[in-house]
Amino acid sequence: MRDVLGLAGVDAGGGWLIFKLPPAEIAVHPTDGPSKHEFYFMCEDIEKTLMDLSAKGVEISAPISDQGWGKLASIKLPSGADLSIYQPLHPVAYDLEN
């Protein structure tokens, strides 16, 4: 996570690594199905981000798809789990000034 994704972090002891994340947003919207949450990393240029990650040996587990609200893809984490990454095509809250 530190070396490949470039996240700064600390070792909290006993192998528990804690990483600093970039600015984040939370989206809350209605659903027709059961309640759930999803975690996505955001990027400004998904093609470049995936190219850079691939060059570092990261497996792209889902190719880019246009979802209307953003360009979405997934990468494989060392655990085998997928992590979604998207380039927003909607207004982003982290551009707002305090």
**Widest sheet: strand ordering:** 3-6-5-4
* Alpha plus pi helix count: 2
Major beta sheet summary = 4 strands, mixed
Helix content: 10-25%
Any idea what the shape is? globular
First and last CA, distance: 30 Å
What order do the helices and strands follow? HEEEHEEE
The overall pLDDT average reads 88
* Class from helix and strand fractions: alpha+beta
What kind of oligomer do you see? single chain
Unreliable stretches covering 5 or more consecutive residues: none
* Rg, alpha carbons: 15 Å
Strand content: 25-35%
Structure in words:
There is one protein chain. This protein has a 4-stranded mixed beta sheet, with helices on one face. It has a two-stranded antiparallel ribbon with strand order 1-2. Strand 1 (9-11) and strand 2 (17-19) form a beta hairpin. The protein is globular. The chain has 2 helices and 6 strands; from the N terminus they run H-E-E-E-H-E-E-E. Helix content is 14%, strand content 31%. It has 98 residues and is an alpha+beta fold. The relative contact order is 0.19. The N and C termini lie far apart (30 Å). It has helices at 2-5, 46-55, and strands spanning 9-11, 17-19, 40-42, 60-66, 70-76, 82-88. The mean pLDDT is 88.
Record the SSE blueprint.
Elements: H1 2-5, E1 9-11, E2 17-19, E3 40-42, H2 46-55, E4 60-66, E5 70-76, E6 82-88
Parallel strand pairs: 3-6
Antiparallel strand pairs: 1-2, 4-5, 5-6
